[in-house]
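Quick one, probably user error.
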C-alpha cells in the first residue's frame, strides 16, 4: 500500500527516530490501515519507530486529542523527541482546518521535528520549497473553506426564500422544556398561599 505513493523528494536518512501518529474519527473505524502503511514506510527507509500515538475517537470530543497532546509533550523532551512524525495525511493531525495544521507543523518544526505525510508526498520537499508548499496548500484550503461556506449560505437563503423552516425541528426536547417551565410557574404562583392573591 505505501509503495504506491511516489515522491520526487524522498527523505531517506537511515536510523532516524520516528513517531507514528494515527487518528480515526469514530470508534467503528480502525487505525490498522494507517498503522500498517506508516510502519511499512518507516521499515522501508530504515527508520526506528520509537513511539506510536493512536487517537481512537473524534477530535471534537471532550479531552481533545489526548494523544496529540502527549506527542507535543514528548517533542518538548529531548530524550523522547522523534526526528520525524509520520502521519497518513495532514488532516489526521487535526480537523480544525489548515491554519491549525500549519500551526502544529510549525510548532513541531521549532522542536526540530519534521512532519511527513504519506498522502502528501510534497511534505518531503527540501528547505524553503517546503515552506512555500505549506503556504500554498493552506491558502488553497482556506479558499475552499470560504467557497464551501458561501455555498452553504446560498443554499440556506434559497430554502428560506422557498418558505422552509430552518434549524432543529421542534420536538420532544422542546416539549419537555415547556412542561418543566410550566411546572415551575405553577409551583411558584399556584401554591396554596398564593392561590387567592
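Nope, works fine. Designed sequence:
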Amino acid at each position: 500500500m505505501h509503495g504506491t505513493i511516489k515522491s520526487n523528494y524522498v527523505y531517506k536518512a537511515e536510523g532516524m527516530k520516528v513517531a507514528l501518529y494515527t487518528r480515526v474519527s469514530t470508534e467503528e473505524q480502525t487505525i490498522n490501515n494507517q498503522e500498517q502503511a506508516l510502519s511499512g514506510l518507516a521499515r522501508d527507509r530504515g527508520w526506528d519507530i520509537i513511539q506510536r500515538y493512536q487517537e481512537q475517537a473524534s477530535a471534537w470530543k471532550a479531552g481533545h486529542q489526548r494523544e496529540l497532546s502527549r506527542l507535543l509533550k514528548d517533542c518538548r523532551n529531548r530524550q523522547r523527541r522523534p526526528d520525524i512524525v509520520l502521519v497518513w495525511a495532514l488532516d489526521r493531525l487535526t480537523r480544525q482546518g489548515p491554519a491549525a495544521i500549519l500551526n502544529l507543523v510549525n510548532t513541531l518544526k521549532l522542536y526540530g521535528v519534521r512532519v511527513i505525510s504519506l498522502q502528501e508526498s510534497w511534505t518531503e520537499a527540501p528547505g524553503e520549497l517546503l515552506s512555500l508548499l505549506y503556504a500554498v496548500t493552506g491558502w488553497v484550503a482556506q479558499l475552499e473553506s470560504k467557497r464551501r461556506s458561501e455555498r452553504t449560505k446560498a443554499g440556506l437563503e434559497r430554502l428560506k426564500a422557498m418558505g422552509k423552516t430552518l434549524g432543529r425541528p421542534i420536538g420532544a426536547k422542546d416539549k419537555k422544556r415547556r412542561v418543566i417551565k410550566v411546572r415551575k410557574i405553577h409551583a411558584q404562583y399556584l401554591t396554596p398561599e398564593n392561590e387567592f392573591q
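The domain at 2-141 is CATH 3.40.50.1390 (Rossmann fold).
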